[in-house]
Amino acid sequence: ETGVTQTPRHLVMGMTNKKSLKCEQHLGHNAMYWYKQSAKKPLELMFVYNFKEQTENNSVPSRFSPECPNSSHLFLHLHTLQPEDSALYLCASSQEPVVGNTIYFGEGSWLTVV
Amino acid sequence: GQNIDQPTEMTATEGAIVQINCTYQTSGFNGLFWYQQHAGEAPTFLSYNVLDGLEEKGRFSSFLSRSKGYSYLLLKELQMKDSASYLCAVKLGSNTGKLIFGQGTTLQVKP
Question: Under a CB-based contact definition with an 8 Å cutoff, are residues A8 and A111 in contact?
């Protein structure tokens, strides 16, 4: 248990569906992140939120839409995805700026687009 | 661009010592992380180096040389449960948790 909870753990969706991934952190952190982990590829940063404000969008297609209503919750809204978007989506949180702090990851949401 | 290299796979024997290397070339540097990730699970934090030298934590140690853009993770007294992927990641900025990851090293520990 890392203090970062993601739901659902597994999701299968069609290319025309709309679904959302949810992340909640219980660590009192002020920064949250979405990462994507595809097979045979390094973890890729998608979005960064500091104090609920998006500070980075790493050239992510608009079919992925993040939402951060407060410092503890982060959503990733999904619509009209492609099969190549099938991957493990990881949420993470940290306290910034603190030197030597740890970034904690959730268990991830396995997404399959059919 | 950002580049982090680590071997794709390694195999070692239970009870032995293994060293996983990581080299990096990044636009910024504010520390290097090592994470362990078992199949189907979240990455879990192992170590963090921001200054040159060796950090020891039980069976795990991590070394950093900033001038060489090099780090390694040393695992001693290997156990079967150490079979996992080991991820090297560089923190780019001082006020952000943005990490750039290597592709990960899959370690298989054999009896």
Answer: no
Question: In degrees rounded to 5, what are phi and psi of residue A85?
Answer: -80, -5
Helices within A48-105 (DSSP H only): none
Residue B76 to chain A, least CA–CA distance (Å): 23
Query: Is the Cβ of B102 closer than 8 Å to some Cβ of chain A?
Result: yes
For residue A10, what are the contacts with CB-CB under 8 A and spacing of at least 6? A109, A110, A112
CA–CA min distance B24, chain A (Å): 14
Could you tell me if B29 lies within 8 Å of chain A, comparing CB atoms?
Answer: no
- Which helix (H) or strand (E) covers residue A33, if one does? strand A31-37
C-alpha to C-alpha distance for B87 and B89, rounded to whole angstroms = 6
> Is A90 in the B-facing interface, judged by CB distances under 8 Å?
yes
Which residue bears the tokens 């590829």?
Answer: A41
Quick one: how far is CA A3 from the chain centroid? 15
Give the count of beta carbons closer than 10 Å to the beta carbon of residue B3: 12
Indicate the residue type of B6: Q
Spatial distance between the Cα atoms of B83 and B81, rounded to a whole number of angstroms = 5
Cβ atoms B35, B47 nearer than 8 A: no
Q: What is the pLDDT of residues B12-61, one digit of tens each?
A: 999 999 999 999 999 889 899 999 999 888 889 999 999 999 999 899 99
